[in-house]
Amino acid sequence: MNLLITGGAGFIGCNLAAHFIRAGHTVTLFDNFSRRGGEANLAGLQGEFPAGFAVIRGDVRAAAAIAQAAQGQDAIFHLAGQVAVTTSVLDPRRDFEDNALGTFNTLEAARLSGQNPIFIYTSTNKVYGGMERALVVDAGLRYAFADMPNGVSEDWPLDFHSPYGCSKGTGDQYVRDYARIYGLPTVVFRQSSIYGPRQFGIEDQGWIAFLAICAATGKPITIYGDGKQVRDILYVDDLARAFEAAIANIQHAAGQIFNIGGGPSRTLSIWTETGPLLERLAGRALPVSFSDWRPGDQRIYVSDITKAQSVLGWTPQIAPEEGVRRLWAWIQANLDLFAA
To answer: Are 246 and 312 in contact (CB under 8 A)?
Structure first.
């Protein structure tokens, strides 16, 4: 297949590219290289696959550029966009243009390409908002849902919080509706915490990588809240298999929305469990300071992945301890990238 990956030089994009190049597909990366790590990720891919993929330096906000890139593509993975809640609050117009307008442009490019390509969109669990209605209990070192043992299903009411939640949610609903209105075979992945190699985590996005990078480089760590917040986490190789499963089962997946994460069996608390794990890898105690809760921070979010398991035949395979160990090994091998 011919595959176009927007945001292809980003963390998820470059890992998907490597996965699908190895599987024998023709891959094109579309990226504006505005994020830190993009050039390093591209260099890594070029070293591993010197003749294995094409690169287009472009921006999804430019409709003509993405329309040209979409020509001849059998599938489009739309990952490009602004990724941080705090950034969206500081610059909501840019957030809207990157996420809402960028997604609309990419959808239109797919629709008008004449190929009717499979279109997979990376949405976010932030479309569910603060989930104030969820019953949460303090289980000692972590928070837990009182009455949702399988986690949050796709039926949970949408409640967009922050400009980021609104812009990603807008894309989420546009992608879904293009399947209904235009027959475009679209799939929405509402993703939880994705982590793994090639991730240049920052304080408000990519929290596992950010904490691991701080632990490896001796940078200060600040935890907002009490550190008992829980997230289900998904290793990026497992996410790549979910994309593969969606393509293989597109006759059932088209027009569908899936919560994609580690599920109840692959969770970590943000510090009370992640901290000791990183301390074992670092071989030393890690100093940490605590600050006030951030607005809208969920005490717990765990994806119910039952629908993805049933429709796609997909289940995560990498346990948190193994995944974090692999991430740590990549950081140790690339410490020069984090020197600044």
So the answer is: yes
> Does the annotation count 178 as an active-site position?
no
DSSP label at 23?
Answer: T
Neighbour count for residue 112 (Cβ, 10 Å): 12
Domain ranges of the chain: 2-338
Dihedral, CA atoms, 125, 127, 131, 136, nearest 10 degrees? 0
- Give CATH superfamily name and number for 2-338: NAD(P)-binding Rossmann-like Domain (3.40.50.720)
Given this model, what pLDDT does residue 78 score? 98
How far apart are alpha carbons 245 and 273 in whole angstroms?
A: 31
Encode pLDDT of 21-53 as tens digits. 999 999 999 999 998 899 999 999 999 998 789
One of 121, 164, 174, 235 is an active-site residue; which one? Answer: 164
Both tokens of 123, joined, read: 């949405």
Answer for the pair 225, 296: CB distance below 8 angstroms, yes or no. no
Give me the DSSP letters along 161-175: -HHHHHHHHHHHHHH
Query: Treating both helix axes as pointing N-terminal to C-terminal, what angle do 102-112 and 162-182 enclose, rounded to 10 degrees?
Result: 20
Q: How far apart are CA 337 and CA 340, in angstroms?
A: 8
**CA dist., res. 59 & res. 62, Å (int):** 6
Count the Cβ atoms, other than its own, within 10 Å of residue 189.
Answer: 26
- Only one residue has tokens 């995944």, namely 323
Alpha-carbon distance 192 to 260, whole Å? 6
Provide the sign of the torsion angle of the four alpha carbons 278, 281, 285, 287, taken in this order. Answer: negative
Q: What is the DSSP letter of 97?
A: I
* Backbone torsions φ then ψ of 3, nearest 5 degrees: -120, 130
Sign of the CA dihedral running 171, 261, 131, 86: negative
pLDDT tens-digit map of 268-284: 999 999 999 999 999 99
| Pair 266, 234: CB distance under 8 Å | yes
Residue 234's Cβ-count burial label (10 Å; 0-12, 13-18, 19+) is buried
Q: Note whether 103 and 142 are within 8 A (CB).
A: no
CA distance 317 to 301: 20
